[in-house]
Design brief:
heterotrimer, A mainly alpha, B alpha/beta, C alpha+beta, B: alpha/beta, 6-stranded mixed sheet, 14 strands, elongated, C: alpha+beta, Glutaredoxin, 10-stranded mixed sheet, 4-stranded mixed sheet, 15 helices, 26% strand, globular
Amino acid sequence: MRIALIYKELNTLLSSWVGVIAISAFFLISGLFLWVLPGSNFWDYGYADPDLFFEMASFLLLFILPLLSVGLFSQEFKHDTIETLQSLPTSMFHITLAKFLAAVIFCMVLLVLAIPMITVLNDVSPNVPLDYQALLGSFIGLFLLGACYISFSLFASVVSEELATSVIVAIVIGFLFYYGFEYAAELFSLDDSTGYLIRSLGFAGRSDDLSKGVLPLSTIVYLGSICLLFILGTYALLTHKLKSI
Amino acid sequence: MLQLVDIQKSFDGYNVLGGINVRLNTGDIVGLLGENGVGKTTMLKILSGITQDYSGSIIYQDVEIENLQEFKKKVGFLSERNPLYPQMYVKEYLSYIALHYSINNPKIKIEEVINQVGISDKSHLKIYQLSKGYKQRVGLASALLNDPEILILDEPINGLDPKQILQYRQLLRSMSHGRIIILSSHLMQEIEALCDRVLFISDGVISSDNRLVDQDLSTISFFMTTAKSLDIKFLKDEPSIADIKELSKNEYEIRSVEGMDSRQVVFQQLAATGNYILELRLKEQNLTDLFHSS
Amino acid sequence: MSRVLKIGVLIIGLLILNLIIHRLDIRFDLTSDKKYSLSEQSKELISDLKDPIEITVFLDGDIPIQFKKYRSFIDQLLRNLRSQSSSIRLTYIDPSEGSAQERQDLQRYLRSYGVYPISRKVSTKDELNQSFLYPYLSVSDRQRTIFIDLLGDKKPGQSEQDAISQSEIGLEQKLNKTIRDLKINSNGLVGVMGDSKKLIAAGLNNANGKLGNYFFIPMDPNVVMINIDTLQGLMVSNHKFEIDRTIQLVADQALMRSIPVIWFIDKYDISIDSIGEYGQYPASPRQLVIEDQLFKYGSKTEPYLLQDLRCSQIPQVVGIEGGQSKTIFIDYPHHPVLFPNNSVHPMSQAEVISFFATSVSPLEAKPGLRSVPLLTSSVRSKYTQDLRILTFDMLRIEPDVASFSGPERDIAIMVEGPQESYFNNRLSTSDAEFLSSTNAEFIDGVDRAKQIVVGDLQIVLPKLSTDGSLFPVGYNSWERKLYRGNLLWIAESLELLLHGDQYLGNTKSLNSARIIDRKAFDDRKYYYYFFMIGLPILLSWLSTILWNWYRKKKYA
């Protein structure tokens, strides 16, 4: 795959104000909820444990990442530039992958920007040092979740060329995976194992582990599978759509 | 040499292309004519590798195309809608496109195409700041970046002013050497002015394939008004006359057989029967007629 | 292959892969103390299970949000356990489900185990409802059921959230212990010798729950010596100056036979009653004969009385009002409220009431000995060094808070390691005769002996009510309040002595709670706000501006 493809997508993300606004929203909202507004902040929590941040972030990214990444394809459709991409000597699959990777890199940058918030946690509880190993685990976990949200957004960006529609589709898919299965498992009074199975399809239970720095291999493989399925789904939908143009 | 063999394409069960067979030679500037919706754009998209879901085969330089991405490297395509990234600078856009091709010195090449299409005075702007004509040139510039062996232009002069059109014609003519240029247009005089060869498409097939230069020389048609009515049957037997139509009372349109001039024969025949010609007007043969006759 | 088929194969492939990986149950616990993984001890314990164990979760149904996280933690833990052995069965019971009759039956069943719900108010749009929660697990084998109180370690004044997170950390150990309790199954015999041995044994035998596995028998020294092989442990109590020499000898020989011993000693034989009776009471510490023996084993008892601002209260009549005497409750620092020390061993954090306690400290110069604090005062404590006469005067004046400057003092310690017999080279003829009369040999040393020395007998001594019946151990008749911690602490201490090796390995860090310091934050509030919110935002805007500038420079 060509670096050119990733470069172009990153360029788009980096030079547009949407990215900046999304990042600002992320830090403003998480800052407010974690440090100022009552009910969910660190003072109520009582511990300077980064898992509170990671839980908040894993929920917030559900909204922020779609804002960033639903334009990836829908804008190409809107400006007909999808045709430009088609005429280039590059396969659509590579283009899909490049868009995904570019958004993932952007997500990584966003997570790196969150490091100051974690270091403040070290300052406000100096007696017990932060568990950096666990922190790394939490970052990897959040990153995996982020990648999944991005794959949803990528898919949604092919569904409609209207940004608003795409954002809603991406968030709905995200919600379904985050809470839907959790609620579904509770809704039906299913017996032990079936309930587990349905619950395990959701993110809510899994993000709990991830935010603590525990990475079950099953969760890694599961999130990876979801990403793969949605990337392939995006590609399939894309080629189907392009056929009829 | 580019050859299309039985290219077929349908959308949702509706047959758009019903078997295109044509052979295009290097150096040709080929015009594609046809009413809206007959499949011109579809054919160009297939040729440029955008539409991949079709049946039939494309043979280029005697080899059937299998690696589409490799073939795309030899093609330059300007789409009818000329899609561009509005937020990019002209040069930024061109260097992005250039990254996809193995171009030796992309910077120089970009400058070259910018000069070629005549946008050097606007190349510092963002694309959305350009007029439609300039955007069209940017599109053409991007199609030229990879020195394409096959240049495909779908409605290329859309939005150009007359002066730009003239420049455009010159540019294409200067580039035709060693290339196949295929363009479609709904403006017949444009094709007429530029193309060596015109393909008419109707109902998804090539209904006629004409070399424009020969066409002008070969067929002589004329309108004629006579004093008295004349016996058409008697003229039809003349070997130099291909067709004769009675347009109204004492008004006729006569088409000579290719390569022959029937005017003298008609004059002699009329004189012999005591009839005489009030008016004889040579019919200017153009693409419109070809379009209608095909 | 058609596209649909390909996609189908892919999805099925991914599904199978996920199922396999799920089965394998591999987790990368990146926390440095492996907080969220089963300890090796648990794995060993669980994989050894032969009979099925059923774990029932009563925290189910519509549970409030604060408990959701804890529930998921419990799920995770139980799932981990189940993956180790097919003998573990999990059941979830929602106590609010079923018909009214069923619910009542369940409540009755739970009450029979002393399990009561906690209530919480749930405000909906129109009304304030009350919902009941059972934060309990039960662990059962074929014969017995033991309940685990999930919030049992909640300290007074501690928020529910804190108690929950505290409880999360200790839950695995609690489960382990309970499962082990079920496994041990045989009733251990513990002999009780010394002063008030009958009361002590009666108090402990009355206790259900954690001490239910043991049977405490008040015994004379010769009986102990004869039955020494059948005993799992020994308790020795002493508050009188003199002590029967045979008690000392038997306790010594029990230690030499690796039978763990808990010593309860009272250097001050005082009670409030005695102060009340005489108005004042000479509080002079006595050098007990037994102290010399304990000194030999490596622990030293302090001669001073402990006073602690973390203490229980006593009632004081302050006047007559309307013909009725008016009573108020006043903090009484001589009745310290102690807490189990968690620094080395995890122990349930429940208040332990003590009366006129003295502290115990290890002797440093004993090689090979290891000592572990088990019960500790607060930092707001002090020794009463100069006080010899105890009166109630101290109740009339505010205590001098500044003098309660700590440090924390240990009231009970565990000492383990090699020991030489206290009677080595000093075995008298009568001692030898006593041993031979019980058919016991004298043993002069042991590689490893375990003992606990407690600086207050009252911790284990039940009080007698006026009608002669027995109050539970830990009951404070002044406050009319039961301190559940006393029995819990004794049970866990006994557990530590008897099964300490399994216990010891379980050393997950309990003190790694990163308590947040609001002051540290508030001092540099605006800097922090800028640093963690403003800076990232600024950086992102700056990078976009710079990037666009770069583009302009390059392309325009």
